[in-house]
Specification:
Chain B: Pfam families: Ribosomal_S7. The structure holds two protein chains of two kinds. Chain A has helices spanning about 20-35, 55-60, 65-75, 105-110, 145-155, 175-190, 205-220, 230-235, 255-270, 270-275, 295-300, 305-320, 360-370, 395-410, 435-440, 455-465, 475-485, 490-500, and strands at about 140-145, 170-175, 195-200, 225-230, 240-245, 250-255, 330-335, 340-345, 350-355, 380-385, 445-450. Chain A is of the alpha/beta class. The chains are: A alpha/beta, B mainly alpha.
Chain lengths: ~500, ~280
C-alpha cells in the first residue's frame, strides 16, 4: 500500500501548503538536497530543545520578555503559588445571541418535506381525487400534490417524527385500510351521512398516517377539513381557558387555541370557504356579518383571542346549517385518549374539569357520538395514540366492545337473546370507568390497523430504494427480512429497521 | 418450482445420455420380477431404440397438478442421476447461505467497522442502544444535508469520491471525514531521557483504529464546546453531524490539531535516533 502522505514531513502531496507551514517548505527542500550528509540537521531548530549557547546571533540574544518579567518582580518566588479556581473548566466564551424563546422548540418541531439529495423517483405520480379510494391502487406509492402539501402543512397534519424529510417529494403508501376508510367516507357522503370512525392499533402502525391520507382525500375532493392535530394541547392545561358565559353547568372555551385553529382552517380551506356563503346574519360578532357573505370573511373576523370562540361558534353553525349548500366536512382529531378523560384544568371551585366540559372538545365528542348532522355528509375521525396516551380505561373498553361487536356482526352470529357473547364487559372491581366517555363511543365504528402485507412492504421498499435511501437489492428475501424484523410489517418498525439504522 | 439445474448437473446429465446405460437391476430384483410376472423384465439392449425418456417429446406430459409436476420433476432428476432432495434445491425457501458467511452477516460485525467503533465512542453511561440511535440520526443528518463544499487547502484522503456522491452514502461520508483528519502519529514521552528530568518525546505511528479513535475524540471535544441551537433528542447527534460536515468542508479546528501533532512529530523524529530509545520502540 502506498502511503498517501509524504513520509518525510507528513504533508499530503495534494495539499496546498498553508501559509503557516510555508517556512518549512524551504527546510524540506534543504533536507532533500543535503540528505546523505546530515538528514535531520535542518529540522533540528523546530524541536524545542534548550541549548546552553547558540552561534546564531538571534538565538544567542537573551529573551526580552523574560528579562522584563524578572526585573518587574524583583525576585523569583520559590515554592507553590496559590491558584484559585484551578479545577474550573475553561469555558469558551459563548458567541452570538442566545436562542429566543420558542426558537429551540421551533427547531425541534420543524418539518422538512423534501431532501434534495434523494433521487427523484421517475414512476411516482401525483394523487388524483379518486386515487385513494380505488382498490386498484393498493400497494402503490403515490405523491402528494403541491397544493395539498400546503393545505396539510397548514392544518399540521405532518409530524416531526415521520420520515418526510428523507425523500424528494412527500409520498404515501396506499394500503388496504386506506382504501377501506376512503371508500367508507365516499359512501357516507353519497348518502349524506356522517362516518364516525375511531382508528386504533399498535404503536407506529400508521394511525396518524391514515388520518393524513383521509385529510388528503378530503382536500382533493374539496371537503372542508377541521383537524385538531394534538389532543393533548387541549387538555393538559397549557393553553388559556375561560368559562363560556351563560352555560350551566359551566363550559370552558380556549380562546387562544381556537384562534389558532380558525386561522389554520382558513389557510387550509381557503378556496372552499370563499365559495361557501352564510345563510344567516351574525350581528353578535365584533364585525357585522350579513347573510350571503363568504365564510372566509366570517373566519377573517377572528383577529383577537377574545372574539375567537364566538366566531368559531358562528362558523360551526354555518357549516352545519341544514338545507344549505355545503361541502362535505371532515372533522378529525389525533390522540383520542387525551380527550376521553378528566382534563388538567380546574374550575373556580378548584375541581378538575372533565374534558367534555371544554367547549371545543365537547363539539368534537358530540360529533363523534352522532349528535351532529352535517348537511352534505362527511366524516368524524379520531385516531388513538399509543406512545403518548394517558390511561383511559373507558375508551379502551368501549373500543374493544365495538370491535368485538363488529367482528360478531361480520361473522353473522348474532345470538338469539341478544346477549353479547364475546364482547368484553366492565370489570366490576374497578372504579375508574367514565359513563360520559362510553356514551360518546357507543356507536362509533372502529378500525384496527396492523402490519402491512408483503406486497405493500415490497412497494414501499422499492420506493425507498428508488429514492436512494435503501442501498440494497429489493428482492423477496430482503422484503421478508425487514417485514419480519418489523413485527410482521408494522409500518413504523419497518422504517426503523430500514431507514433509521446505522446499517445503511 | 422447476428443479434448478446448474451447469455441472446439466453436464452430468449429458454424459449420462451419451452412454445411454440404463441401470442394470440386481439379480435379486430380477428374480423377484420373474416370479411375479411371466414377461421378461430384462432390458432390451440390442433393439437400437432409445429409452423413452430420451425421445424428443412432441407434447408436454399431462400434468394434473402442481404437486404432480414437482413429483415428475423429482423423478426426472433421479433419472439424470441427481439427488432429488438436494438441500440446495429443495426444502429451503431462500436457498442455503453461502459459506463462509460474509462478515456483515456476523452478529458482532453487523455494522461497518468505522460505524461500530464510533458508536461506542459516542456511548455514555454504557447506553449502547442510545448511542446506536444517535449514530442513525447522525447518518440521517448527513443524508439530508446538502453536499459539502470541499476546501482545496484541506484535502481529503486521495481517491475520495466527489462531494456530490457523499450524502447518499453516509457511512462513506463519516468514514472519509474521520480518516481524513486522523493523525498518523502520536508523541510518546520517555521520562527523564532528555536529560535534566525532561521527557524525551518520540513520534510513534498509530494503527488505523487508534488513528480513528483520536480523530473522533477531537471531533467530540469540539462538539462538546458547541452551543446547541435547538432542543430534544436530535440535538447531540445533529451537533456531531454538523462537526463532521465542518471537517469535510475544512472549517473545523480539528484540522489544526492534526497539523499541530504532525508538526511536533516531524520535529521530534530526531529523537528516534537516541540510543536510549533504540530498544524501547
Amino acid at each position: 500500500m502506498s502511503a498517501p502522505n509524504c513520509l518525510r514531513c507528513l504533508v499530503r502531496p495534494s495539499a496546498g501548503i498553508p501559509s503557516s507551514t510555508a517556512p518549512r517548505t524551504a527546510a524540506h527542500a534543504a533536507a532533500r538536497t543535503a540528505a546523505p550528509l546530515a538528514p535531520l540537521a535542518p529540522l533540528a531548530p523546530l524541536v524545542p530543545r534548550s541549548a546552553p549557547f547558540s552561534t546564531t546571533a538571534a538565538n544567542a540574544r537573551p529573551k526580552k520578555e523574560a528579562q522584563g518579567k524578572d526585573s518587574s518582580k524583583g525576585h523569583v518566588r520559590a515554592g507553590k503559588r496559590l491558584t484559585l479556581g484551578k479545577f474550573k473548566k475553561d469555558r469558551v466564551a459563548e458567541k452570538g445571541r442566545p436562542p429566543a424563546p420558542g426558537e429551540r422548540k421551533a427547531y425541534r418541531k420543524r418539518i422538512t418535506l423534501s431532501n434534495d439529495n434523494a433521487i427523484a423517483v421517475p414512476w411516482l405520480t401525483d394523487l388524483s381525487p379518486t386515487d385513494l379510494a380505488d382498490p386498484a391502487n393498493i400497494a402503490k406509492v403515490l405523491a402528494l400534490p403541491d397544493e395539498v402539501q400546503d393545505q396539510l402543512r397548514a392544518s399540521e397534519a405532518f409530524k416531526p417524527t415521520q420520515c418526510w424529510g428523507m425523500f424528494r417529494k412527500p409520498a404515501v403508501l396506499v394500503r388496504k385500510e386506506t382504501v377501506d376508510v376512503m371508500s367508507r367516507m365516499q359512501a357516507s357522503v353519497a348518502k349524506r351521512q356522517t362516518l364516525r370512525l375511531a382508528l386504533t392499533g399498535d404503536k407506529v402502525s400508521g394511525k396518524s398516517m391514515t388520518l393524513l391520507q383521509a385529510m388528503t382525500h378530503a382536500f382533493l375532493n374539496n371537503w372542508i377539513v377541521i383537524h385538531l392535530p394534538e389532543a393533548q394541547e387541549l387538555t393538559t392545561a397549557c393553553t388559556e381557558y375561560a368559562p363560556v358565559p351563560g352555560t350551566e353547568p359551566a363550559q370552558y372555551m380556549q380562546p387562544v387555541y381556537v384562534l389558532k385553529l380558525i386561522q389554520a382552517i382558513k389557510r387550509a380551506n381557503e378556496k372552499v370557504l370563499a365559495k361557501t356563503y352564510t345563510v344567516s346574519a351574525h350581528p353578535e360578532l365584533p364585525q357585522n356579518i350579513p347573510a350571503n357573505t363568504p365564510l372566509l370573511a366570517l373566519a377573517n373576523v377572528a383577529k383577537e383571542p377574545d372574539a375567537a370562540w364566538p366566531v368559531f361558534q358562528a362558523l360551526w353553525s354555518e357549516l352545519t346549517a341544514q338545507g344549505a349548500n355545503r361541502p362535505p366536512i371532515l372533522f378529525s382529531l389525533d390522540g383520542l385518549a387525551h380527550v376521553m378523560k378528566v382534563s388538567d384544568y380546574r374550575s373556580p371551585a378548584f375541581e378538575l374539569i372533565h374534558a367534555h366540559d371544554l367547549a371545543l372538545i365537547r363539539l368534537f365528542a358530540d360529533a363523534l357520538g352522532g349528535g351532529v348532522q352535517f348537511p352534505a355528509g362527511g366524516a368524524v375521525l379520531a385516531a388513538t395514540s399509543r406512545s403518548n396516551a394517558p390511561r383511559a380505561p373507558s375508551m379502551e373498553l368501549a373500543l374493544a366492545q365495538r370491535e368485538a361487536e363488529q367482528a360478531a356482526r361480520q361473522k353473522g352470529d348474532v345470538s338469539k337473546d341478544g346477549s353479547k357473547a364475546g364482547v368484553p364487559q366492565r370489570d366490576p372491581f374497578f372504579r375508574g370507568y367514565d359513563d360520559r366517555v362510553e356514551a360518546v363511543l357507543r356507536s362509533v365504528q372502529v378500525l384496527r390497523l396492523g402490519g402491512i402485507d408483503k406486497l405493500e412492504a415490497r412497494a414501499l421498499m422499492e420506493y425507498w430504494a428508488a429514492s436512494g435511501m435503501l442501498r440494497a437489492t429489493v428482492d423477496e428475501k430482503t422484503v421478508s427480512e425487514k417485514w419480519t424484523l418489523a413485527g410482521n410489517g408494522v409500518l413504523g418498525e419497518m422504517e426503523r429497521a430500514t431507514l433509521l439504522t446505522a446499517r445503511v | 418450482m422447476p428443479p434448478r439445474l446448474n451447469i455441472w448437473s446439466a453436464c452430468r446429465a449429458l454424459s449420462t445420455r451419451a452412454f445411454a446405460q440404463r441401470p442394470q437391476p440386481g439379480p435379486a430384483v430380477l428374480a423377484r420380477g420373474m416370479a411375479d410376472s411371466t414377461t421378461s423384465r430384462l432390458p432390451e439392449q440390442n433393439s437400437g431404440k432409445l429409452p423413452p425418456s430420451m425421445l424428443p417429446q412432441s407434447e408436454t406430459p399431462a400434468v394434473t397438478s402442481k404437486e404432480n409436476e414437482t413429483a415428475l420433476n423429482q423423478l426426472r432428476m433421479i433419472e439424470y442421476g441427481l439427488s432429488s432432495h438436494d438441500p440446495s434445491v429443495e426444502g429451503h425457501k431462500y436457498g442455503v447461505p453461502e459459506l463462509p458467511l460474509p462478515s456483515q452477516k456476523h452478529n458482532k460485525h453487523r455494522y461497518d467497522a468505522v460505524v461500530s467503533q464510533v458508536t461506542r465512542l459516542l456511548m455514555k453511561d454504557g447506553k449502547l442502544a442510545k448511542a446506536q440511535r444517535d449514530m442513525a440520526m447522525i447518518l440521517n443528518y448527513l443524508r439530508t444535508s446538502p453536499p459539502p463544499k470541499l476546501d482545496p487547502s484541506r484535502p481529503l484522503l486521495p481517491g475520495a469520491p466527489p462531494a456530490s456522491h457523499l450524502p447518499l452514502d453516509p457511512v462513506l461520508y463519516l468514514g472519509l471525514a474521520i480518516d481524513s483528519v486522523a493523525p498518523l502519529v502520536k508523541l510518546r514521552g520517555f521520562k527523564g531521557m532528555a536529560g535534566g528530568g525532561k521527557s524525551l518525546e518520540v513520534p510513534v505511528p498509530l494503527l488505523a483504529r487508534q488513528r480513528r479513535r483520536t480523530a473522533f475524540q477531537w471531533i467530540l471535544d469540539s462538539v462538546n464546546k458547541k452551543k446547541s441551537r435547538g432542543s430534544g433528542r436530535t440535538m447531540f447527534p445533529h451537533r456531531v453531524a454538523e462537526e463532521i460536515v465542518a471537517v469535510v468542508e475544512g472549517r473545523s479546528n480539528v484540522w489544526d490539531k492534526r497539523m499541530q501533532i504532525h508538526k511536533l512529530g516531524t520535529g521530534s523524529r530526531a529523537n528516534l535516533a537516541n540510543p536510549q530509545v533504540k530498544g524501547l520502540i
